[in-house]
Design brief:
about 0% strand, 18 helices
Length: about 500
């Protein structure tokens, strides 16, 4: 009699794959690469912008092109993994990500850089859901699964700190191009290891036909939306093309909703997002990420361009925020999320983050890092970490097994799309405020040094104007949580193995 057959009824199922812990190493390595790429590029952006001649109005596309492609195609990427097989999608995603990274490192123009970043996003959208689902199907025991996802989540949080520091080291001592080339060995090791070690369980594929109209409508609608924000910065909000892009976006996204209501196998079943709690989570997370992503961009430029920090010093300057996020997530959110309702953590978390953001509105050319930037970063990280952990749990709580993967992917989608919109929108607000300030004050500057001072003052004025908007977004996120999220504290029962269980774990946060 086999070991499985000898088990008493109700005994926990154990994973039969002896290589599952080895596989975790390569899956975690791939996750580390994706997280590193999100933060490492922020540190290198000022140097890359100068070398490639990218304008201030277009610089956010280095971040936005990746975030939009990744967020817009996550649902499609998860669906491809179900159709082709998770292992195959994982390996293809790694190879494609490495190739796109090589293209980015070899970029000779802004357009080439933007294209490489978009390709990274495309293959990242295939890689991320495949990695998560591989972990889940290989670790069927509840305790082992919790440990595996805990390691995966720790890398998602701690990898951001490594990215800031590594980005600084590579940019300062080698060249900004190495922030792209460094992905190639990561991807090569992870792909080879996955190919030889991972053994995907049979029978886990979803053979339903692809919802191609849904993919096209959702992606084109989101691209039009973000490009509309970008056009507004250079051409103005009343420009005909800007208005046309917003109208096109609305039409495409409405058509997407109508399509999803009618197709047999929709890309996004609407029952997932119309649930009150899940809808509130997706909306509040997306709005909060809008505030965070734009602020990352401003702080990088403030520290390097205004304060004169080196890239490596800038990387270390971001560590307090990462530390705050890890403390908020692991020591506050994780410990309390089974004891109190999610909104009792999420609402206050977003408000604490808004206080940190409020401190950043006091930035001036000569502001002290220790008295202004440091406490702001700590509060921002602590608040967001506290809010994110229960949000990840509640986003998939009680969802039907057939919808669990889509519900998890929607969390990442709201984060990535929020990041794309946030970077474009806040950059637009900052650039407009900077232009207006310089126009009003440049006439009084009689020397070259005074003109440079006005330009620096204008840049900081633009940053603080945009950060005020970010404060309002975080407060709005807290209000949405209080208004919509009404679920009580979830029980701390383990996830049962079996059909559909593989997707019932929350997706770890990746703060880009």
């Amino acid at each position: 009699m086999s070991e499985t057959a000898a088990k008493a009824p109700g005994a926990p199922a154990q994973s039969g794959d002896a290589n599952r812990w080895k596989a975790l190493v390569f899956i975690a390595l791939a996750q580390l690469m994706v997280v590193l790429d999100a933060t490492i590029v922020n540190i290198a952006l000022p140097s890359a912008q100068t070398d490639l001649g990218i304008s201030d109005g277009n610089r956010q596309w280095v971040v936005t092109a990746y975030a939009l492609a990744f967020g817009g195609l996550l649902l499609f990427g998860g669906r491809i993994a179900d159709l082709w097989g998770r292992k195959r999608a994982f390996v293809i995603g790694l190879i494609g990500f490495a190739a796109a990274s090589a293209l980015g490192g070899a970029a000779t123009s802004g357009a080439m850089m933007f294209g490489a970043r978009a390709l990274q996003g495309v293959f990242g959208a295939m890689l991320a859901p495949a990695a998560l689902s591989l972990l889940a199907v290989m670790f069927t025991d509840a305790k082992e699964r919790a440990k595996a996802f805990g390691i995966y989540g720790a890398i998602a949080g701690g990898g951001g700190a490594v990215g800031f520091i590594l980005g600084g080291v590579l940019t300062e001592y080698l060249d900004w191009r190495w922030t792209f080339f460094v992905n190639i060995p990561f991807a090569a090791v992870a792909a080879l290891g996955a190919y030889f070690v991972i053994r995907e369980p049979e029978g886990g594929r979803n053979r339903n036909p692809l919802d191609i109209p849904g993919v096209l409508l959702s992606t084109l609608g989101l691209v039009s939306l973000v490009y509309g924000f970008t056009r507004a910065e250079s051409e103005g909000w009343s420009d005909v093309s800007t208005i046309g892009l917003f109208v096109a976006s609305a039409v495409l996204l409405i058509a997407f909703v109508v399509t999803e209501m009618r197709v047999k196998a929709p890309l996004l079943p609407l029952r997932v997002v119309t649930d009150r709690n899940r809808g509130g989570i997706y909306l509040s997370l997306g709005i909060a990420i809008i505030a965070m992503f734009g602020t990352f961009l401003f702080l990088t430029y403030y520290l390097q361009v205004i304060q004169g920090f080196s890239p490596i010093k800038t990387g270390f300057a971001f560590l307090p925020m990462i530390a705050g996020m890890m403390v908020g997530s692991t020591q506050i959110g994780a410990r309390l999320m089974t004891r109190v309702p999610a909104r009792a953590l999420m609402g206050p978390g977003f408000l604490v983050a808004s206080v940190g953001m409020l401190l950043m509105t006091r930035l001036e050319i000569g502001s002290s890092y220790a008295s202004t930037v440091l406490p702001a970063m700590l509060l921002l990280g602590l608040g967001m970490g506290t809010a994110f952990m229960p949000a990840m749990s509640l986003a998939t709580l009680g969802v039907e097994p057939r919808d669990a993967g889509v519900a998890s992917a929607m969390v990442n989608t709201s984060q990535q799309v929020g990041g794309a919109i946030g970077t474009a929108l806040l950059n637009t607000i900052a650039a407009s405020a900077t232009t207006a300030y310089i126009k009003d004050h440049i006439a009084t500057a009689t020397s070259k040094s005074q003109q440079q001072l006005v330009q620096m003052e204008g840049a900081v004025h633009g940053y603080t104007n945009a950060i005020w908007f970010a404060v309002g977004m975080l407060v709005l996120a807290a209000v949405i949580v209080v208004a919509f999220v009404n679920a009580g504290a979830p029980s701390a029962t383990p996830v049962a193995s079996g059909e559909g269980a593989e997707d019932e774990l929350p997706v770890p946060v990746v703060a880009h």
